[in-house]
Amino acid sequence: MYSKSHYLWVMDKKIIFSLLFLVHFVVAHSQSKPSDVTISVLTCAPGKEIYSIYGHNAIRIQDRAAQSDMVYNYGTFDFDTPGFTVKFMRGKLPYLLAMGDFVRFMREYQYFERAVTEQVLDLDSIQKQKIMDALAVNMQPENRAYKYDFFMDNCATRLRDILQNNVARITWDQSSASNKTFRQIIKEYQKPMPWTNFGIDLIIGAKADRKTTLMEETFIPDYLAMALDKVTVNDGTNKKIVLENRTLITFPESAGPNKFVAFLLSPIFFFIILLIVEVNILMRSLKNQQNKWIIRYDLLWFWVVTICSLLMVFMWVGTDHIPTKDNWNLLWASPLIPVWWWMQKKGSPNVKYFSYFLLLGIVVSIVNAIPGVQFLPQYFHPAVILLGLILVVKGWRLHHSKMNLTTA
Q1: How many CB atoms lie within 10 A of CB 276?
Q2: Distance of CA 147 to CAs 152, 212, 250, Å?
Q3: Mean pLDDT of the 244-261 span
Q4: Which of 168, 189, 299, 339 has the most neighbouring CB atoms within 10 Å?
């Protein structure tokens, strides 16, 4: 084991920079009094990129004596992390607490046209000092990184916990809980992106369909802001923790495509077209009208569903992502489909029993996907109805066709 002095010599330059930044912060604030400090929570509107559609939170500390205005941001990560892509997919990428200048922070959101609101907190000197001390400890190189979890540990929940752990007698209004599931909450933000909404419904499992408590729903920045508006501090005055709400920057809402255009661009319309194509192929098959393009089309479907199935299995058992566990979509996108395909090609006498087994899973999935009928522990996107029908029609055709299931 290296000595401490040797370790300091071989530290990464980024860590040295963080240390110097922290030292500057401590020196700057050592001459300040908590009465000179204003602490507020920033809530940033959702962006247009998939990583920003749920919004963002940060905490702002203004120190008039030190003439500093800093923002603490728990939502950063290092693209230079070794094995970045694999760690990101497997839920093992460390997220970092970063500290930066408020003006630069605002320029970024101005550039991307994302509104920012501010909740100025009504805190006494002791509470302010405890929050600043907690952030200073978190900024230390050995404490900056944390294991990100979309539902349970992110930029919003970290701020919630900072307040919960450092503001004495803080009381959250539990009666204001939405009683929504995790999935219902995130779907509010996925609505403008129908294909993203569809893809996320396929990837996240039954754990996303549990109703949230008030504290759990604050994983979304907007929900944290709404909860903070009703937080009180029972110090004898029962005062609200939010002293003032401010709008720092705002932008007019952009008009999305009209409902008809949105429908044409949706997964529902896309799979309706593919279902019509599948029925047409079935009609041609009944007339013995087959060609190599139909065979290739079937193979494409086989590979797409197989890859989709393997991805679901990987996200369940091969990653640390909690939301992707217990995925019932594997009932229709079964990892056993390649086995059925092989048995079909070989003409196995037992293929029909295997077909019935797969058919049962698909039918259950179709029924569960009907709006208002859900009986499984997991919500299914309505497009699963169309996907299931396509697989049933295709499976029936291939099972009863005399064609050789090989590439042309």
Answers
A1: 11
A2: 10, 21, 32
A3: 85
A4: 189
